[in-house]
Amino acid sequence: MSMFLDTAKIKVKAGNGGDGMVAFRREKYVPNGGPWGGDGGRGGNVIFVVDEGLRTLMDFRYNRHFKAQSGEKGMTKGMHGRGAEDLIVHVPQGTTVRDAETGKILTDLIENGQKFIVAYGGRGGRGNIRFATPKNPAPEISENGEPGQERELQLELKILADVGLVGFPSVGKSTLLSVITSAKPKIGAYHFTTIVPNLGMVRTQSGESFAVADLPGLIEGASQGVGLGTQFLRHIERTRVILHVIDMSASEGRNPYEDYLAINKELESYNLRLMERPQIIVANKMDMPDSAENLKTFKKKLAENYDEFDELPQIFPISSLTKQGLSMLLDATAELLDKTPEFLLYDESEMEEEAYYGFDEDAPAFDISRDDDAAWVLSGDKLEKLFVMTNFDREEAVMKFARQLRGMGVDEALRARGAKDGDLVRIGNFEFEFVD
């Protein structure tokens, strides 16, 4: 089984804030001590950090749940609870993080050491010191900690390479990678020898260096799922230059020019923007008997079918086996890389505008629905957060929650919907009677 994994779906849960405390000073010789309960500590964030030592998402194959610690509860003597440490999750370079629910891209992690907070911890609840007023100098009110953010994420690894080798199976991509780099890909005389991307570093005679990825062989219909399908096409997206490797000997009975058109069609079908990347045509296996004649025919057809205003791609005849023509190919590739800018992988419509973890000001504060048992059901982010942060063990806190609901207009809205005295109202698993 291949140990290369380039997609994963995981769940992350930031830590909850610690609960605030209700406490009072009870010291000798200190009359009317007043409230002394401290705030809870902040919950830990979940942070992704890029680790250049990782090559796949294999670490997420069996560990799919990541939960940060919650903050400590507030203490007496006005002491705040300790904030929880952040949970650090290491990911490989080239990891794209999407929100699994919305499909929006949260971040694209490409630099070693780059950090991104994917889930924010909840703030600590306030202790009763915070609620003291001249009117109520000894409040028995505290808040529970704010719940930490919880979300499901889709991770996608797109390997970092300057140059991508594409072409039909068995055209010699793996052999080419093995002779121009120190990589040791599996090489065999059968289709789909390469079933995972291989990466290697090239150093030219002039001292320039760049990363090359040998991508599993494409076939016609790959963009629709044929063969290895789109499983590894994503790895081409980060490359700036494509080396299109063609078996010019036609040893398997295929037409080199038809192969060239077919692979380009698959790249275009997968992502139109892949055709923006400059290509160099690598005419491989030139040591074979019919290669020279086939190359002449290929060049002729290429010229005939190119628009007169378009610039023909460069063609380099090589033999990976005899190492013929490799230095010229590598020098031309390095030169093309120097003048080729980075390509933006995502446009603004795909990116989440801002990582916002509070309330949407335009969203309604609450929503009212009716359950099967005729109970009124209250929901909504703002209302549910107030509910979770209310300490229902304290009567004053319960009364404060009731005033907050009234201030939000819940009573009036229920009355307008036809709620009558004694009707059951439900928030989550909590139930109470409506009093008109």
Give a verbal description of the structure:
The chain is of the alpha/beta class and 436 residues long. The chain has helices spanning 173-180, 256-270, 291-304, 326-338, 381-388, 395-408, 410-416; strands spanning 7-13, 46-50, 65-67, 87-91, 95-99, 105-109, 115-119, 150-157, 163-166, 198-203, 209-214, 241-247, 279-284, 314-317, 367-370, 376-379, 424-427, 430-433. It starts with 6 loop residues before the first strand and ends with a strand.
Rg result: 32 Å
Structural class call reads alpha/beta
Low-confidence parts: 188-194, 221-229
Portion in beta strands: 15-25%
Instruction: Provide a count of the helices.
Output: 7
Q: Which descriptor suits the 3D outline?
A: elongated
Fill in the keyword field for this structure:
436 residues, alpha/beta, 6-stranded mixed β-sheet, 5-stranded mixed β-sheet, 7 helices, 18 strands
SSE diagram, text form:
Blueprint: E1 7-13, E2 46-50, E3 65-67, E4 87-91, E5 95-99, E6 105-109, E7 115-119, E8 150-157, E9 163-166, H1 173-180, E10 198-203, E11 209-214, E12 241-247, H2 256-270, E13 279-284, H3 291-304, E14 314-317, H4 326-338, E15 367-370, E16 376-379, H5 381-388, H6 395-408, H7 410-416, E17 424-427, E18 430-433
Parallel strand pairs: 1-3, 2-4, 9-11, 9-12, 12-13, 13-14, 16-17
Antiparallel strand pairs: 1-8, 2-7, 5-6, 5-8, 10-11, 15-16, 17-18
